[in-house]
Design a protein that fits this description.
The protein is globular, with a radius of gyration of 20 Å. Helices cover about 25% and strands about 25% of the residues. It contains six helices and 13 strands. With about 290 residues, the chain is of the alpha/beta class.
């Protein structure tokens, strides 16, 4: 079985449409008129959400993007355009790591202490979380329990807003499915990519795992999907050949330079690769 995905030439930069919150919410969630939406952020001192005092701290760029692009976007016409209600912002204390348990209490912009379960999870249909650390795992569990839909957008910056969150997620879903078909139950995959004008190859041992796709769409009945500007392919059992500790569009755990560092890889949406399968082997080309 062979699967091929057309690849954008490396010397031709990818162009993205301008970021549109309305288009993003309409595509990902297909919200219905009357649904309630809110924004959730994390702060070392969550009381600083009162009166938006956190905006005075220039180091809180993630939370500022959440305020400017998401909260203000909702308030400046997107809620009216989509027929949504609410639009409040809440803050919880920063957890210190990705996917750790969230606090039970938070604060509203009017200074009120809120119970995140009773005042947020149970009262809103759409929860948009812009945080320092990913809250995907705990919010997934709460979404299943309380019936809301949500998006985690941790580490938000201008690059993510103008690329990963500006793409057409219908197209992302199609490309993710092609990659899933090309890689599922493969023994290994190799990914060629360019970073800082250098070419690298990442070898991933996949051990014939069934590939899963996270394509960003969460339409219809409440269920949870992460929409962080990235999509999951497979969790490799092992990756071969040293690679940079951090490259744009991917995350690699730091390693000591040995030939078999452990890594978790998440390509940015809209970066299709060339995927070729021969028997049980898969080759993925992504630049």
């Amino acid at each position: 079985m062979n699967a091929t995905i057309e690849q954008t030439p490396v010397d031709r930069p990818r162009e993205f449409p301008p970021f549109s919150l309305a288009r993003l919410l309409r595509t990902v969630f297909d919200p219905k008129a009357g649904e309630r939406v809110c924004v959730l952020i994390d702060l070392e001192n969550p009381r600083e959400v009162e009166g938006f005092r956190f905006l005075q701290n220039p180091d809180l760029s993630i939370q500022r993007h959440g305020h400017d692009a998401i909260y203000q976007g909702l308030r400046n016409g997107v809620m009216y355009e989509l027929g949504l209600k609410g639009g409040e912002m809440f803050a919880y204390e920063i957890t210190g790591g990705s996917n750790l348990d969230l606090p039970t209490k938070g604060y509203a912009t009017d200074g009120r202490e809120v119970d995140l379960v009773e005042d947020v999870y149970k009262k809103y249909d759409l929860i948009l979380c812009v945080s320092t650390y990913s809250a995907t795992a705990p919010l997934t569990a709460f979404a299943k329990q309380y019936g809301f839909r949500g998006a985690t957008m941790h580490g938000m910056n201008q690059v993510i807003l103008s690329s990963g969150l500006a793409v057409d997620y219908f197209e992302v879903s199609k490309q993710a499915e092609k990659l899933r078909l090309g890689m599922t139950k493969a023994d290994w995959a190799e990914i060629d990519y360019v970073f800082d004008q250098q070419r690298f190859t990442l070898h991933l041992d996949l051990a014939k795992q069934e590939a899963q796709k996270s394509h960003g769409l969460c339409r219809g009945r409440p269920r949870y999907r992460e929409s962080s500007g990235r999509r999951d392919l497979l969790r490799p059992r092992r990756c071969d050949r040293p690679v940079p500790a951090q490259i744009r569009g991917w995350h690699h755990r730091p390693h000591d330079g040995r030939r078999r560092p452990h890594c978790e890889s998440r390509p940015a949406p809209g970066q299709p690769g060339h995927c070729r399968r021969a028997q049980s082997k898969a080759h993925l080309r992504s630049r």
